Amino acid sequence: MKDLWEQARQQYRETPPPEELNFAVASALRAGERKRTHRRTVRRSLSASLAACACFVLLVNASPTFAQAVAEVPVLGDLARVFTVTQYTVEDRDHLIDVRLPALDLAGDTDLEQRINTEISTRIDQILQEAEDRARETKEAYVATGGDPDDFMPIIISVDYEIKCQSQQYLSFVITKTETLASAYTEHYAYNIDLTAGREVTLKDLLGPDYKEIANAAISEEIARRSQDPDNIFFLQGEGGFTSISGDQTFYLDADKNVVVLFEKYEIAPGFMGVQEFTIPLPNG
Fold first, then answer.
1. pLDDT at 48
2. What percent of the chain has pLDDT over 90?
3. What is the pLDDT of residue 180?
4. Can you give the pTM of this predicted structure?
5. What is the domain range of residue 98?
6. What is the 3-state secondary structure (H, E, C) of the chain?
7. In this predicted structure, which of 12-26, 194-208, 229-243, 270-284 has the lowest mean pLDDT?
8. Does any domain span residue 186?
9. Which of 106, 138, 159 represents a domain boundary (last residue)?
10. Looking at the structure, do residues 124 and 243 belong to the same domain, yes or no?
11. Do 155 and 207 fall into the same domain?
12. What is the band of 153 on the pLDDT scale with cuts at 50, 70, 90?
């Protein structure tokens, strides 16, 4: 396996970008190499991310060695369904940004693949820009109120992802953005795909037409059970507590193909309780 990766890496380095790909491709390749060897700072670029994605797909299609190496990586399976399209760190006096961005590769369904990859890139680009704007505004306010710029604590922004489920039928992965100043705040973005149907699936698809009633009952029962522990505190109904899942409720599928409904920190419980997750078995599971 090591030899395969070394051969693939060498071919990756030596393969010139096709003429139809612009300078951003070469920049992405060089930036990725610097990141792996020297951990140097590189700048975020949406176009570079998409170009890096294109390079990966070209290598998979054009290089049997590279494709074989990728296919033997644990978790990814026979085909690189989800892969790291770009990874970089930006560090300065205002913020520390650490990003590992995924992309999707679906054989035979380029429309779904393109739509999801574009959505991921656009969404992450937007939330990072908003986070950078907040970092700048926070520092400006700190200095305006008499703070020493050299004493300003940089905002830490992290973007990462995790594959939750990968089977013959389902692929589920979650992107997590964490922003830390005085405390940490997270946001999760889940993608759940039925590979046999070639589309994203909803809670209604998985739990049936009564999905809200099924999910609400399971979550309410679990909240009651957890609340028996005096260390667990949930907001009361009418005071921010759980009443029902939303129409666009965040969820993912776990390794056992159960639905896991996710509530962000502070959403239904105090911050110290963290992110709250509730497992709901599929009706036919």
1. 42
2. 42
3. 85
4. 0.70
5. 2-159
6. CHHHHHHHHHHHHHCCCCCCCCHHHHHHHHHHHHHHHHCCCCCCCHHHHHHHHHHHHHHHHHCHHHHHHHHCCCCCCCCCCEEEEEEEEEECCCEEEEEEEEEECCCCCHHHHHHHHHHHHHHHHHHHHHHHHHHHHHHHHHHHCCCCHHHCCCEEEEEEEEEEEECCCEEEEEEEEEEECCCEEEEEEEEEEECCCCEECCHHHHHCCCHHHHHHHHHHHHHHHHCCCCCCCCCCCCCCCCCCCCCCCCEEECCCCCEEEEECCCCCCCHHHCCEEEEECCCCC
7. 12-26
8. no
9. 159
10. no
11. no
12. confident
Which tokens hold the place of 66? 């590279």
**Residue 197 lies inside a defined structural domain of this protein:** no
Domain membership of residue 179 (yes or no) is no
Q: Which of 240, 263, 241 shows the shortest CA–CA distance to 250?
A: 263
- What pLDDT digit, counting tens, does each position of 208-221 carry? 999 999 999 999 99
Q: Do residue 154 and residue 213 come from a single domain?
A: no
Q: Looking at 159, 193, 217, which one is the last position of a domain?
A: 159
**Do 249 and 153 share a structural domain?**
no
Domain with residue 238: its CATH number is: 3.90.640.20
**Number of folded domains in the chain?**
2
